[in-house]
Each structure stands twice: as C-alpha cells, then as structure tokens.
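Q: Hi! First time asking for a complex rather than a single chain. Here are the components, and I think there are two in total. Is that enough to go on?
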Amino acid sequence: MADDRGQIAVDFLLGISLFLIALIFTVQFIPGMFMAGSARESSLDYTAYRTATILVEDTGWWGNSTSSGTDWEEHPANAMRVGLAVDDDTSSRLTNTPNVLSMNKTVQLMQMNDEDLIEILGLYNNIDGTRFSYGYNISITKNNGPMVLDGRPVMLGETAPSDRETSKITRIVLVEAGTVANFDADDLPIDPYTASVEDTILNITGPLENTIAIQINGLNITGIDPSFKKLTLDGVNLNEGIDYTSYKVDINGTISTLTSTGKIIDTDIIRFYLEPGLLNHSQTYQLEINLKDITFTKIAPPFVDYRDGIEVYYEPAYLTVEVWQ
Amino acid sequence: MNDRAQLHTLEGLLAAILMTLTVLMITQSTTIVSPQNELAIDVQLEQMGADTLTVLDRASNTSIRYNLTQCVASWDMTEATYPANNLIILDSSIGNLIPGILYNVDLAYVDNGDLEVSKVIIKGQPKENAVVVRHFVTLTNQTVQSMNGSWGLADDEIKVVEVRMTTWTV
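A: Yes, that's all I need. Here is the structure of the assembled complex.
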C-alpha cells in the first residue's frame, strides 16, 4: 500500500501560513521595502510647498514683550516668521502682497545661520521624538543664473544631492532689484547748451554709489532714422560698454541692446545703466542724452532731476525651494 | 524509516524564497507613482499658472511692460482663431514667464446680462493634465483708451473681466 501521508493538507497549511505571516510582518514593519516610499516623499512635497509659500506670500513677523511688526529684517533676533513679501505698513498683519519680494528681507535671510533657518522654516521632521533636519536649497534665479542682490547671489543651503530623491517647487516672483528713474519724454527739456531739439539733459545730484538706471518712455519720433547717438556727462563723452549700457524695451517687453544704429519706434522704452563710480562726488552732474530723429519740446530751465523720477524696480525671477532627507 | 517529508520542506523553502524574490524584484524595479506624487506635479503647474497671473497683475510698468489689466484693456474684441492669437502683448508676457509650458487664455465677462466667454490666445488642445487658473481684472474707460482697446465703455462704467488661463505641459 502506498504511503500517502504527504498529501495531508495540514503540512501545506502550516507552511503557507508561516510564510504569509512572515511576509505580512515584514511588509508591515519595513514600509520602505515594498512601497517605493509614499509617506516619505510626500512629506517632503509638503515641506517644499509650505516653505516656498511662506517665503513668497508672507511678509513675516517679529515680536518681543513690548512690540511687534512685519519688519522682521530689522529685528532678526526676534523673528517669528521670515516671509519675504514686501510691506509698506509694518505694524499690521493685514497686508497682502504675494509674489513681490523685498530686497532687504532677502538680504537678511541670506545672513541667517543654518540652524536658525531650519528651525524657523520648519525644515525638519520628528520621528519618535528625534529631530531630523532636511537638506535644503533655496535660490532665486533669473535667466538661468542666480540673481545677485547686494553683491551676493541669492543661494541658501547646499547643492542638491544627485543620488537622493528631492522635492522641489518653483515660484514666479518679482524681486526688488534696486531703483530706476522713469521719465516721460514730454517732461524732459531740450538741451540748452547744444540747442538741438534731439538732445536732452538730466540733472543728477551726487554722490551715488550704485549702478543707476534711467528709463525714458513716450518718445516723439520725427525722422526716418530714429536712433541713439551718445551719452555725455558734464561735457565728457561716456564709453558704451564701459561707462554705461543701453537697452530698448519693445511693446512686447522684449529687451534688446540699443546699438547706435538700432532703430527706435515710438512704443519703445529706452533704458540706460550707468556704472558705479561715475557720480562719486557731492555735486550736481549734468547728463546729456543725444538722440537722432527723436525730439524734445520743453524749454530748460527748469531741469529735471534724476531723483524726481525714481521708483523701485522689481525684476521677474524664479524662487526655487528644494528639500531632501 | 520514512524520510520523504525532508524533501517537501526543502521544496517549500525554495518556493518561499522564489516568491519573496519575485515580489521584491517587481516592487523595486518599477517606480510607483502614488496619487500624492501626481498631485505634486499638478500643484507645481497650477502654482506656476497662478503665479504668472499674479505677477503680471502686480508688476509695475518698469518691471513688465504692461500689466494684466492693461493687456486685457488692449483687446480688440475679436476672438482668436488657431494658430493666430490677438492679444500678442499678453501672450509675450506670459511666454516670457513660463517658457516650455503651453497655455490658452479665455476672457469671461458679462455683456448685457449674458456671460460671454471669448478665446484670445490659443496654443492648442489642452492635454489630460491641464489645470485652469483664473484672475479678475477691472477695466475702466481710461485704461481702455490709453491702451487703444475696443471695449467701448462709458466714462462712469467699470467692467470686471475674468482671465482664465488653461495651462498644460507636453
């Protein structure tokens, strides 16, 4: 008689039960093993999103026992939140200026040390009471390069590692990048020294240490070859590319260099950047702007001063927050 | 003595190892796109779209040539037909901010008690992952006149226009 005890289901049942119990135990207690990480990366997603939102949409807040306000960049030691959005009323919490970033706040953020930044932005995770800090990289870029504020590129944290999964979010922002003096061509006078209606003059009161930007709109085209000829400072010719750079912005917002032969049309804005160091002394400089086939109408004096047209200039840029474990 | 059960044990062990290895191999080799991961991609796209409209709305004329209100004010009231679009200044402003992302823009406004929806920028047929972002602008006749638009508003009239932007990636 054949021995058929091996056919009994109890052996099989015991074996498969043991196997299943072992498998379930393993899956339950090592979550990262079978799921290619859902809990881990999504918490990174939230952190990146939250950090970018705080920086871009919030003005920040500081406070001590006696006073408080949104100008935390003046009181970094008492900062509670470190939003970068600009604010002209520092005493209220009511300002809503998302996506417009303050230069002073951004510069102050770059001066904070690593530990404070991780603490205040909440760039850490608590696992069973132990704190693990995330790696992070916060940067503001434009034209694929880092944006430079106050002489330093805006780049915080470390370079993202290539061997680990990171979570990244990019926000489009306007960053305060200095000032520009904006004039309407109708307000600028004819240069009384050359008496040419194609030349105008602008008073600039020194000393000015930074790059200065001057912009003219509403040009009156009167000839067939409207173009830019040269800039003269107190009678001395300035060198393009060394002392200044010149651009035109067309109706679609495209910026191109304003070479001396480039044609200008009436919807264009022309813009000059004067390099630092030209206007170091405490005196009034006169900047002559010589154009061709573009005329001015006002009679000087009075002259127009650079400071009269000055306004804050915001530049479109990208703020990127990247975090990893 | 009967020792056939020994073979059954070894077979069982081997089968168990084989099964474990198979499961491990499959789970490790494929990237599981969980709903959260997909959500994060949508969030980024929606955020880019919302930011674009916010930035255009808030920009002063020294940063971006014309803000959102001015762009909408300059509209000539004719609908776009693909591939031409008839709000070029808005198109180039958006294109400068989100290179590589495609978008359609519709304007929705109330005219004589009816809701009108007009296409002004058409870049193609939105894909499955498209998201819509919207922003409201308020037009006055002064803005319209300065931008040479054709809204034909009275001097004491204001018009609220919804700018709807559908964005997607390819």
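A: Chain A touches chain B at residues 3, 6, 11, 15, 19, 23, 33-36, 38, 41-42, 45, 49, 56, 97-100, 167, 169-174, 180, 182, 215, 249-254, 269, 311-316 (CB under 8 Å). Let me know if you'd like any chain examined more closely.
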